[in-house]
Amino acid sequence: MLGFYFHLKKTTKRILYGLLLFLFALTLSTSRAPTQLEEVINRGELRVITLMGSTTYFQNAKGEGGFEYWLASAFAEYLGVELRMTPRESVSGAIIAIGGPLGDMAAAGLTVTPQRQKALRFSEPYYEVTQKLIYRNGSRRPRDIEDLAGGQLLVIPQSSHSERLEDLKNDEYPSLEWREASGLEMLDLMAMVDSGEVEYAIVDSISFQVDRGIYPRARGAFDISEPQPIAWAFPRHGDDSLVEAANRFLEGYEASGELDRLKKRSLIQTNEFNFAGSQLFMKRVSSRLPDYQEMFQEVAQKYGIEWQLLAAIAYQESHWDHKATSPTGVRGLMMLTLPTAKEMGIKNRLDPRQSLDGGTRYFLQTKSRIPDDITEPDRTWFAMAGYNIGLGHLEDARVLTERAGSNPHLWNDVKEFLPLLQQKKYYSTVKYGYARGYEPVSYVRNVRHFRTILNWHTLDEKRRLERENRLELPNSSDWNTGSMLSL
């Protein structure tokens, strides 16, 4: 039954669940206080505490995102209410806010630990992590806890990691020492290990998996824990109605396969462009590009933009699938948000020509807002980054670039500082705050790569047609199968 529920249309689900809640409410006595679930339903809003991070919650040009955000959004939809996410500055700050005016619950990638269970209720877990000790590549790799003697180990205070170290110290390693630093997140720890600022740190295995491409010198040494459950946290006071509703939702969401699909979309690192990605792109140049090429050329000519660049952006957005839909609700060939589509006058985001036309105008609008003293080709690269992450976050990166004495007008300089927007010590000093800064860097790199391949493809096609016009068959020496993949 629950699996069937997750395949209904959104409107149908809201009506069905609202009707069930109404009938349930009719059977209740009006003299007693409402349950926690009833309070959420009556309010029409689920209030959720979270933490900023690539695996939890973030904001960019396409709206809000992150695994915890998308999962909480599905729960709010299941309840038939709106969602309000409130990020806190630290793990301790998030835990304290649970059950207060800002948070009916927390969706923050929290590990279920014995210590936390004394103060909080937890839902059924929806994935597991191990605690991973990381070190800097090039230094000696520690093999076990005893190898950490004399080294500098850094962890986040009041985290499951510090709890685990306390257990290890009390049970087996009385000489184990570490340092706790407030105001840091796991990505900050990876950056500090990558730079050599600290020797060792502990992060969750999921965070390491998702973010290791950003700091490649931060390597995994070994796990200091068995797999531990990650779950939503609820206040200990009050009744169990909301946590029971969460468990029913999670059970159905997992049974429907949606939970597994969400994990694959959001908990896997995809920012590195590799040989396999090039191969897939070349395959789709043959299988999908012919369906859209004429349209790319017509729209590009209409707006005075190179069609290969436009096609490369469209591929990065949707892999040339005009029916594509992301977890955040962006849709279509150019993956437009609903507000952007409305702003551009697009009525049907799944119509490829409407999507391409609207996306092109939005890209050019973004480009027109880039400061006039940024010239080509950097102007185009900045516009791509702004199209991906938003101009506010891009401006923050330019501020960091200028502070460091680099040139905020050059993409090659600014792209070095965009990933710093994921570290609290940097994003807390700029206007628009946290952003997944590695994404626009990968976005621009990939689009430029696709565009180069398309330019070579166009040249090869032109040469092929010239050969056919001369009525000559190509010799084997004319073929260069590696010419595109070796760029």
Provide an overview of this structure.
A hairpin with a 2-residue loop joins β2 and β3 (about 65). The model is unreliable at about 470-485 (pLDDT under 50). This protein has about 475 residues and is α/β, with parallel strands linked by helices. The protein is built from 21 helices and 14 strands. It is globular. The chain folds into three domains: about 1-120 and about 235-265, D-Maltodextrin-Binding Protein, domain 2 (3-Layer(aba) Sandwich), CATH 3.40.190; about 130-225, Periplasmic binding protein-like II (D-Maltodextrin-Binding Protein, domain 2, 3-Layer(aba) Sandwich), CATH 3.40.190; about 275-445, Lysozyme (Orthogonal Bundle). It has helices at about 1-5, 10-25, 35-45, 65-80, 90-95, 115, 160-170, 185-195, 205-210, 240-255, 260-265, 275-285, 290-305, 305-320, 340-345, 350-370, 380-390, 390-405, 410-415, 425, 440-470, and strands spanning about 45-50, 60, 65, 80-90, 105, 120, 125-130, 130-135, 155, 180, 200-205, 220-225, 230, 235. Strands 10-9-11-8-12 form a five-stranded mixed β-sheet.
List keywords for this structure.
21 helices; alpha/beta; D-Maltodextrin-Binding Protein, domain 2; 487 residues; three-stranded parallel beta sheet; 14 strands; globular; five-stranded mixed beta sheet
